[in-house]
Design brief:
The protein is mainly α and about 280 residues long. It is about 70% helix and about 0% strand. The protein has one domain: MetI-like (MetI-like fold, Orthogonal Bundle). A hairpin with a 2-residue loop joins strand 1 and strand 2. The chain is globular and about 70 Å long.
Amino acid sequence: MAIVAQQTKFSKIFWPVLAWFIALIFFFPIFWMVLTSFKTDADAVKPEFLFTFKPTLENYLNMTANYDYWRFATNSVITSVFATGFALAVGVPCAYAMAFNPSRATKDVLMWMLSTKMLPAAAVLYPMTFLTKNFLGVFDTKFLVIVVLSLINLPIVIWMLFTYFKEIPKEIIEAGKMDGVSTWGEIKDILLPLAWGGLASTALLTFIFCWNEAYWTVRLTTTEAATLSKLIEGNRAPEGLFFGRLSAVSAAAVGPIIVLGWFCQKQLVQGLTFGAVK
């Protein structure tokens, strides 16, 4: 007979209240950013709360009319989509080989890939800038941004996919081999449909990482391939930060990600909990 733990009246009230409190703490900076985006730069530095100020759309109108927001947003979409696609195209075969055809060096390779995330980005900034400017000639191009974003997220992609693939019974893949299915057929017709939740969550998280990447996109671009991170960074001047305009640009930058996460939350939760319950 299953034993069901009885919840006390205190726990029924305390845990939901605690969860809402933590959620509000995380949500408050976003709320404050959106609120500030409807203030002028002068009002943004005043200690006014809620709607004690006069809301204005000036920051958003200037953002689209004077800051060429859509060009920066288009660059962010292009680089994030292609970087995610390239990372998955490389990560899926790698994770497949490590999960279903492991060798004695598989764990070492996985740890080596993960260790590359521990390298400080500033340590390779100068060599990267020097090479791309003077030898390769790809500085401030979408190609460079796509390659860099793909490579810095590739270890995470392989680790996540490897974890999901390990939860799939190896006998299914072996049965496909006995039926004469090719390696590509195993990946396309057997593996990916079974690990669709994990693949979707990996793609979503990788896209978010690419979209939010600021260090490399700011330093490896100037105008042509500049993303929204560059536009946000541009609202800094010797006079200080223009908080109203900065908040408007930031709200427009995080808005698509919030909407995407809201509509894809089912796939995200399914992928993140894949294999958690035996």
